Amino acid sequence: MLVDRSSIRILHAVGGMNRAGTETWLMHILRNIDRDRFQMDFLVHTDQPCAYDEEIRALGSKIIPCLDRAKPWLYSRNLKRILREYGPYDIVHSHVHHFSGYILWLAKQVGVPIRIAHSHSNTFEVDAHASFLRRVYTTLMKGFIQSHATTGLAASRVAALALFGDDWENDPRWQVLYCGIDLTPFKIPIDGLVLRQELGIPEDAFVIGHVGRFEAPKNHLFILEIATIVAQKDPLMRLLLIGDGILRPVIDEKVKEMALAEKVIFAGNIPDVPRLLAVIDLFLFPSLYEGLGLVLIEAQAAGKYCIFSDIVPEEADIIPSLIQRISLAQTPSVWAHAVITNQQNPVSISQAEALVLLESSVFNIQRSSQELQNYYLSCLDQSLVP
């Protein structure tokens, strides 16, 4: 049975619509999806303004705060009220990993027909070292997802494994859907030298770049240790850190302690990451864990050589000549040697060539957006089958 609806209403559940991998992908989807047919609203767990809120409202979608996440009884009342007041929704699409279990359970009680759990993270390492109470919580939430999600998506195979379990491939409800990026900004000519002047970076400096939230998984301290060693070999080296987060003040202090203040540039949480990628010579990404790492795809689209940890899912390897994986068990000296080696012997591939490869990949936002629209329609079709 086919679904023919003029408007399909979707509520995305997220922490807050700030600039981060999942949220940026959702913005790409909102900009590219058929908004006459698919009405997307955003349930957020904060009452503070977020970076994308204004654009979301300008595109005709709602930002709906649902607070008291730490108090399940109050959160339950709030969410049920929201679903009844702003609904009815055809789909609740939850992006908050384990907590999706609770959200989808409540959505089922209110009668939402399609309930999607979306895994964007590889949390094996964190889960393995969790406290007893945390393990009880994650086990309970995974059980809720198994019982109350009608279907589920994952950003990579390892992200699927982390949330849906070892047998996920044998359950037709779960599948991988790769999050795409908008390649349009990478086609705009950018004068990297002018940008360097704006940032106070010497014209002939070797610039190492990193994009990511200032949170533990992004491993910023390790980045500083690598940069210190590189700077000993090349005093003109600069480190450009793009992003913001709770650990920003801690890293700022470490920069001063390690005598890197003149070599580290904090760019902040900016909207034009593709533009700033034009400034860097090498992209460094030693994450402790990643569901995929969309910014690594962006770095390849910018034609930049990427050195990153071997825990990053292999699906992110789009352009082999631009990537190098290194184990986190290796010392900062090993990583620094890889950086210096690339500096001395840079890989020759033009950004135009890199873009051609990205455009034909699963990470092109046009393809990703169309696949998500088809997925929504398929879910609704199946829900109407007797």
Describe the structure.
The longest helix has 19 residues. The mean pLDDT is 92. It is built from 15 helices and 13 strands. The termini are close together. With 386 residues, it is an alpha/beta fold. The chain has 2 domains: 193 residues, Glycogen Phosphorylase B (Rossmann fold, 3-Layer(aba) Sandwich), CATH 3.40.50; 176 residues, Glycogen Phosphorylase B (Rossmann fold, 3-Layer(aba) Sandwich), CATH 3.40.50.2000. The strands form 2 sheets. It has a 7-stranded parallel β-sheet with strand order 3-2-1-4-5-6-7, sandwiched between helices. Strands 10-9-8-11-12-13 form a 6-stranded parallel β-sheet, sandwiched between helices.
> Strand-and-helix sequence, N→C?
EHEHEHEHEHHEHEHEHEHEHEHEEHHH
Give the helix proportion (percent range).
40-55%
The number of E-state strands comes to 13
> In CATH's first tier, which class of the largest domain applies?
Alpha Beta
List the strand order in the largest sheet.
3-2-1-4-5-6-7
Q: What's the CATH H-level superfamily name of the largest domain? A: Glycogen Phosphorylase B
Spatial gap, N to C terminus? 9 Å
Main features:
Rossmann fold, six-stranded parallel beta sheet, 41% helix, alpha/beta, globular, single chain
Describe the protein's topology:
Layout (H helix, E strand, L loop, with lengths): L7 E7 L6 H12 L5 E7 L8 H6 L4 E3 L6 H15 L4 E4 L5 H11 L3 E6 L4 H5 L3 H17 L2 E4 L2 H8 L9 E3 L15 H8 L7 E5 L8 H14 L4 E5 L5 H10 L6 E5 L4 H5 L4 E4 L8 H8 L3 E5 L13 E4 L5 H13 L6 H9 L5 H19 L3
Parallel strand pairs: 1-2, 1-4, 2-3, 4-5, 5-6, 6-7, 8-9, 8-11, 9-10, 11-12, 12-13
Helix pairs in contact: 1-15, 3-4, 4-6, 9-13
